[in-house]
Amino acid sequence: MQTSNTALFFLEDDCIRAFGQETGCTLLQQAEELYQDLCQHGNDRGNHVIEEHIQSRLFPLMSYYKALLKHGIQEDQALLLVRETAHKAAIDKKAEMQKLGSLPFAYLIFRMGVKRHIKNHFPSEGWQTEWVRCDCQEIHFNLHRCLYWDVTKQFGCPELCCVFCESDDISFSGLAPKINFLRSGTLGSGADCCDFHFIKAQ
Asked: For 73, which of 4, 38, 68, 173 could close a Cys bridge (C-beta 3.0–4.6 Å)?
């Protein structure tokens, strides 16, 4: 697989726009090589959903970040660049959330499917989910373990995890105004857990 076939299919355009044709293509080639190496050493834990997460979302952004650092770009600037790329993908996801948020009884529909969605798309091999509340007013669950936090630590770039966390904030903002998404902290920012609150608008 190449990054062009992942959730960051637009990475080439981003590289060239940010650095110009020659440097952008060089960075992209370095990112592709790093991506292939990461895929060889990644552990999908025998789960095809985990494989999808690491190959389509985690490793493409991680390889771009590592290529930027290898090129001599400072960490804060590299994080800014990967954040811009990640946010572009999150905005696409936000558009999907807006479709759900515009439906009549959006909260009820979301509530009816959320536990199944978490089970199918965030399996226990990668996440430890604690359900706190799922009623007619609020859906609240905590993640005590997260694949994205574990993998970014494993490959020496835990600071990258916050970029993925920010993508949640962007994506779920599409549910407003019928469903409000709130969170007080994440594992990547040093909290004990990632708390997710989806609150029905009054």
From this structure: 68
